[in-house]
Fold this sequence. Notes:
The chain is of the alpha/beta class.
Amino acid sequence: MQNIKITKLIPGGQALGTTPDGKKVFFWNALPGEIVKEYQITKNKSHYAEAIATNILHSSPHRIFPQDKCYLSTSPWQIMDYDYELSQKSALVQEIFREHSIIMEQPQIITDNNPYYYRNKMEYSLYWNHDLNTIQLSFHQRGSHRKIPITSSSLEHPEIFTTAQQIVDDLNARHEEARKYQSILLRCNQSGEVSGGLYENGKPHPVFPNLTDDILGQKYSYSPNGFFQINLPVYELALQEICQHITTSKVLDLYAGVGTIGLSVARDKELTLVEVDKFAFHELCSNITKAPHNIHAILSKSEEALNYIQPNITVILDPPRAGCDAKLINKLLEVTPPKIIYLSCNPATQARDIKVLLEKYQIDTIKTFNFFPRTPHIENLVILSQK
Length: 387
């Protein structure tokens, strides 16, 4: 096996190395500057391979001992110190935008400096221990279908893991078998209340009791099964930044979900929220029942609600990872609302969309938020205004 030097981290979180014969290898469990001596191939194609480094020479000064044994399954960036993680995420955003011909300095990265126990939602697999004839909590091993049993996890609120273990203890007391169940899904609010439970194979997913949380002083109701932000303290930091850029009396919140962005930053405006998912829309309507009459919810695809884009409106975009539909981007260029606020969980598709919008817009602000510490996931905010 040939030694491979790691040159950099790439979008997606893996570390890049090149074999002596020129083949690219994308590693988990490796850092820039390190030399990988031994590794386990998880995918092997003609022009590249994916692998997990198992023996490192000349460890990076930024390498630390991971807190969880299951870190490769849940949070593969546990191997680096937190300041280095922040700097790498900022550099990756800069690189992604440069690949789309958008030249900028490394953006400021915002964090609450709590890299562990931040997730308010977790889904566990169930592992059958043949030696003990018992069920154990588990995660899937990265790059395979194999399950890894766990006895601890440092990403989610402790109340979530405690509740999951209680469910497993109850299953074992009733001599249940793991193969009967798909997973355990649990969600926790900021007060420590937990909702969720078991998904059983071959049966519809149950509807669990809703939770409530306060965001910037406003109360929101949401389903444990549905979409809601994972890291509320950092999400609030992003919302506070967005608040500073609302300058019009009318606001359009596209891809609104359960409404937490628009309702948190523009409750006192003439606000229109557009959401396509029926379950999220139901939660959205519930969240605006006590809001002023100037707030309206629209059940529609955002790219089919183009008539709501007006010349005197601030537009908020928070699309899924695929980014915005081309029809929506073209409509924004046609109407040219004065300000566009674009929050994205995928800087690559965000940069693609913004490159088109730069025909008539300029970038006022770019800030990166560390919603998902110890993982390579990045949340990026871009504020655009008319040229």
